[in-house]
Design a protein that fits this description.
The chain has 241 residues and is an all-alpha fold. Helix content is 52%, strand content 0%. The chain has helices at 10-33, 52-55, 63-83, 88-106, 116-133, 136-149, 165-181, 221-228. The model has no long low-confidence stretch (mean pLDDT 85).
């Protein structure tokens, strides 16, 4: 598998922006026209409820619900597209569909709406993939996710009324599975000369400043000049008249 590097691209800005705009525009349409789109959420084990697999992440029940999902959605989507850009779109689309279907299969008979399932999907994938990748930057990213959003783990259990803990659990489980099965291009960790197998201490210019006991040896300017300047003489026979 080829390696890649962490590079900033337009997708790092566009993907979070589009995600946030989509949920806010849908909520604005509901308020502006006085309509309720909750029936387009996931309704478990009903064929008509399957449409919520596609539409439920865009629908929110209140401004507080919408606000609570906005920042995590933007941050985690940006993380995904910056650190896992080769697989980001695939993880986002397949993960959203899979977590929606799992919610449809296991949840209570009620309309399940909101982008929180996607948020749990992203948080779970980014955390577990970073640990599995064994890249120090991705491991650090996993720790950042735990530090910021670690408390979300409690809401995959039925600890509070009025939330779709089944949707959270479905997103979390889907992210975990995708972390194991999704192949990503992980940047190679840079190796310094002294980490290479063919490294020879005698050839290292820095180590030449130390003796066998580890004491620093000051090299004079004359010695440095002698090492750098090489004088070659060429003799050419003069022509005789």
């Amino acid at each position: 598998m080829g390696s890649d590097t962490f590079k900033f691209s337009n997708a790092v800005l566009l993907a979070p922006l589009l995600a946030v705009l989509s949920i806010w525009i849908v909520f604005w349409v509901e308020v502006q026209f006085g309509i309720n789109l909750n029936e387009y959420g996931v309704y478990p084990r009903r064929l008509s409820g399957l449409k919520g697999v596609l539409f439920s992440p865009f629908i929110h029940g209140s401004i507080a619900h919408l606000y609570n999902n906005t920042i995590p959605l933007a941050v985690l989507t940006a993380f995904l597209f910056y650190f896992y850009r080769s697989a980001a779109l695939r993880v986002l689309l397949l993960g959203t569909l899979a977590s929606g279907l799992l919610t449809w299969a296991i949840a209570r008979p009620s309309y399940h709406i909101g982008a929180s399932g996607v948020i749990y999907l992203l948080a779970s994938f980014i955390f577990f993939k970073g640990i599995l990748a064994k890249n120090y930057r991705l491991v650090a990213l996993s720790l950042v996710v735990v530090f910021i959003y670690g408390s979300m783990i409690w809401y995959i259990f039925p600890v509070k009324d009025g939330i779709s803990w089944e949707g959270h659990l479905a997103g979390f489980t889907t992210g975990l599975v995708l972390a194991f099965v999704t192949r990503v291009r992980v940047p190679e960790v840079r190796k310094y000369d002294w980490e290479r197998e063919d490294f020879n201490e005698d050839d290292d210019p820095f180590l030449k400043h130390f003796d066998e006991n580890g004491n620093f040896i000051e090299i004079s300017e004359e010695e440095k000049t002698e090492d750098k300047i090489e004088i070659k003489y060429h003799y050419k026979e003069s022509k005789k008249d």
